[in-house]
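name: query_chain
kind: protein
chains: 1
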Amino acid sequence: MTKVQVNVGSLADIGKRFTSAWHRAAQGEVVDETHVTFLNVQTMLDTLSPRRLDMLRHVRQHGAGNVRELAHALGRDYKNVHHDVAVLESAGLLLREGRKLSAPWDELQANVSLIAAQ
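structure:
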């Protein structure tokens, strides 16, 4: 199962995850992780709206040859789907190869720490 880990944290948190992965790889461990970090909860919630999560599910299950095809399959306005694709692509949750869109993860795992960053 492939998963993307969505985190809310600081730039320091991103650096710590990177450093940890780097050290583990240097010790010979195979490191195959995908992380997306938002700097605050509101941005994460705005990005992962119910409609965008539905879009990610659809693309994961059926793929999408292009944005117009995706809008038609979802029964949504092209302009709104185009905007949602841009937001998800910018966050690293939707990938584009040429015009083709993909969401290669089986699971999106969200983590929100209740402990203030040190």
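note: The beta strands are 3-8, 35-38, 95-97, 100-102, 107-112.
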